[in-house]
Design a protein that fits this description.
two-stranded antiparallel sheet; elongated; mainly alpha; 6 helices
Length: 194
């Protein structure tokens, strides 16, 4: 079975009782009966949509007469969608989803999307005498501080707060060690038979 866009942590299992040295990769038991992880499948779907939106936005710039007015909006929404779905893919652990990280990832998506869209929606008013916000014109300040600085402050704090629940448990570490020992034993047997 091909997992497609669904990623899984492989485990080594014996292929049959008669062949004790033959191991095959199998899916972990924490996936549903279809072999799909809903969180990762959804994140992959959103990522594909985001990439298409970004590609269409960029491709529209090659039209004669320049990019249409809707093109930057595709980028303003596609980029946060892509970043959010990549964060979900990185944080997802089995069928349990992303747990406590739902709200922070959603918050980062909203901050990025609203920052880009707000910068696009503001009327062009940058002039030599326009007011500055923390040393930058308003649009630039929204991009630099709202979409650049705020997420870099939020994500490390959230990571620190959820570290214990989102990192490998003792059972996960034991499973990795067991798989490593089985692999090394198999490699040693292969080397001694050659």
């Amino acid at each position: 079975m091909k997992p497609g866009c669904v990623f899984f942590r492989p485990s080594l299992t014996k292929q049959s009782a008669n062949s004790e040295n033959n191991f095959v990769l199998s899916q972990p038991p924490d996936q549903n009966s279809t072999g799909r992880d809903a969180t990762r499948t959804g994140a992959c779907s959103v990522l594909v949509i985001a990439i298409l939106a970004i590609a269409i936005g960029y491709a529209s710039a090659f039209k004669s007469g320049g990019a249409p007015e809707w093109a930057p909006w595709l980028l303003a929404l596609g980029i946060p969608m892509a970043l959010g779905s990549i964060m979900v893919l990185g944080a997802a652990r089995g069928s349990s989803g992303i747990g406590a990280l739902k709200i922070p990832i959603l918050l980062v998506f909203v901050m990025l999307g609203s920052g880009f869209c707000l910068a696009l929606a503001l009327p062009p008013s940058e002039a030599g005498n326009s007011p500055l916000f923390l040393g930058l014109p308003l649009r630039a300040a929204i991009i630099v501080y709202g979409t650049g600085l705020l997420p870099t402050l939020i994500l490390p704090i959230v990571y620190a707060l959820t570290f214990e629940t989102q990192t490998l448990s003792e059972a996960d570490i034991a499973r990795v060690r067991e798989l490593g020992d089985a692999y090394r034993a198999r490699q040693n047997e292969v080397e001694t038979t050659e």
